[in-house]
């Protein structure tokens, strides 16, 4: 079996990939995550998933390198990782009563063959009309400062939502496992 490298330091992506019960290593891709001028959120997520995989590919010959990136957006507004509680509150105030798209780009790069598989998995997320008090209580209980859009759907953030729609709920957390399994199978990895 090929060596599997996750080009990410995200604990969320690491936890998701571990569900597949395959041995893997994680490496910080140190990629610039800034969007390009005029670039759509979809294009940003998919380009960055490839950039992250390529950033570490040279270090791992005969390996499968997984890159992933997510952009949360509505219209031209993007919602990244807030970093601070104040920024998280601002994001959640802006997102309440709104439907966002969380677009997750995924890349599997085979460093032995040079084959690059890329896809994007969108998840539509509708936020409830949250009160300021609900947002404050949420932020007191949940550390969501490292999550795009400040809402950890795998935790208490699920209480902020009216619905989620998409093909793979794991994509919302940051790694679309259904698509990843198909890509790994295409590279000869045996999965049940």
What's the arrangement of secondary structure elements?
Elements: E1 3-6, H1 11-18, E2 25-26, H2 41-57, E3 63-74, E4 77-79, H3 85-95, E5 99-110, E6 116-127, H4 132-141, E7 161-166, H5 170-173, H6 177-186
Parallel strand pairs: 1-2, 1-3
Antiparallel strand pairs: 3-4, 3-5, 5-6, 6-7
Characterise the protein shown here.
The chain has 192 residues and is α/β, with parallel strands linked by helices. It has a single domain (3-186), classed as Maf protein. The chain is built from 6 helices and 7 strands; from the N terminus they run βαβαββαββαβαα. The protein has helices at 11-18, 41-57, 85-95, 132-141, 170-173, 177-186; strands at 3-6, 25-26, 63-74, 77-79, 99-110, 116-127, 161-166. Strands 1, 2, 3, 4, 5, 6 and 7 form a 7-stranded mixed sheet that branches. β1, α1 (11-18) and β2 form a beta-alpha-beta unit. The longest helix is centred in the first third of the chain and has 17 residues, at 41-57. The radius of gyration is 17 Å and the shape is elongated. It starts with a strand and ends in a 6-residue tail after the last helix. The model has no long low-confidence stretch (mean pLDDT 96).
């Amino acid at each position: 079996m090929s060596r599997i490298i996750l080009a990410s330091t995200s604990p969320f992506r690491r936890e998701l990939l571990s569900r597949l019960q395959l041995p893997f290593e994680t490496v910080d891709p140190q990629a610039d995550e800034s969007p390009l001028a005029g670039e759509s959120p979809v294009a940003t997520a998919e380009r960055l998933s490839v950039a992250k995989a390529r950033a570490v590919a040279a270090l791992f010959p005969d390996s499968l390198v997984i890159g992933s990136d997510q952009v949360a957006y509505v219209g031209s507004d993007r919602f990244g990782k807030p970093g601070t509680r104040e920024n998280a509150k601002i994001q959640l105030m802006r997102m309440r009563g709104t439907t966002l798209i969380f677009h997750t780009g995924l890349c599997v790069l085979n460093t032995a063959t040079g084959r690059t598989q890329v896809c994007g998995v969108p998840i539509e997320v509708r936020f409830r009309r949250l009160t300021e008090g609900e947002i404050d209580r949420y932020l007191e209980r949940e550390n969501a400062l490292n999550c795009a859009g400040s809402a950890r759907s795998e935790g208490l953030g699920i209480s902020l939502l009216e619905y989620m729609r998409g093909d793979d709920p794991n994509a919302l957390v940051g790694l679309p496992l259904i698509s990843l399994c198909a890509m790994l199978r295409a590279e000869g990895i045996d999965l049940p």
